[in-house]
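Next up, a specimen:

>
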Amino acid sequence: MIKLLIIADDFTGALDTGVQFSKKGIPTLVTTDRRVCFQTIGGETEVLVIDIESRHASARQAYESVKQVIKAAAGCGIRYFYKKTDSTLRGNIGAELAALLETSGSNQLMFIPAFPKSSRTTKNGIQYVDGVELSKTVFSKDPFEPVRHSSVAEIIRQQSDVGMISIPSDRYAEAMQDYTDKTVFIFDAQTDEDMLRLGGELKRSNRLNVLAGCAGFAEMLPELLELKTVKMKWEPNRDNILIVSGSVNQIAIDQILYAKKHGYTALTLLPEQKLDSAFPDSPACAELVDGVVDALRKHKKVILESVSSREQISLAEQYAKSKGIPLENLHLLITRNIGEIVKRIIKRISVGNLAVFGGDTLFGIMEKLRCDGILPVVEISPGIVAARVISGTHGFCIITKAGGFGGSSIIRVIDEFVFKEEDC
């Protein structure tokens, strides 16, 4: 029976949170079906993660999506809720936390935005990445969802007037009292020790029912909630790997550049290949697919990327402008085309491992492949997940990560996981 419901706003986030449970042997299912029938989920499943795909939705749409899922889950007897948020606080943070607080029946929501293992920390209510204030990092330059503030409270305040209290790491106990007003408590945390100590305080005071945060605090929940475990087996496919990167984050661009220098063959999509809705049915697409299939047969390690530099982002924007395509629609067109291209590749050749960088890209691919869900199994590195696809047609291993996760040589880590003896 489902004990914990996690609601994520994108697919990679759903997986990097879900794997915090499955890696400890807790049966966990990740799905994009926000109207899922909770009663029909397998009896062993302890944790259900629903990706509501609200990262690029309006604040109102995000609010309503969270409200709808929480209401249905509570009606089925689910007691614990966790709103997964992006560790760099992108998306509709304020609207979604307000929806959880107002629908859960609780007056208190405990928000722990830090992820120390991935160098995301919170101090004095300010979010940091690698020791730099969030608004001064590459995430402030994201072409689709730039982060303008470093203050967690200020980010929430953009979409909600809910009451907030920031709690320093030396004053956790002060939040463990009853409040009559609906309040979001924003907890500082700079180390895993802080997270463990906070988890202990929340458990002792019975404050674990309504939570929010990223994969960092989710990792503490298996023991805190005393979830049941089962034996799980995993054996990666060593035939080949296709990496598909739809991310425009500079971190992902640098990671792909590293891969090109260390044994990977790469094909970069042109603006029309990403943005022309007619491209997947064109002879040019068939030629592109032929190129990827041939490369996989010859080299085993292949990359299909949406951009190879920041300049190519500008070229795509210029192409969109010339075709009258609104810039806010770019990510949808790109993910649909990439999804269709990958589907055609997989029809032509057996792909042992499909690695996807970027939540939007992952959603586009899974939608085109008509997969019923994903079972996360292994966390290769913080935020890097290996999983099984639930499908009667496809049997590949899928490896996922958000565009901004990992160091420049993360490809080496993925390579070692897939091929073991081979070096990148």
Summary: The longest helix spans residues 330-348. The radius of gyration is 21 Å.
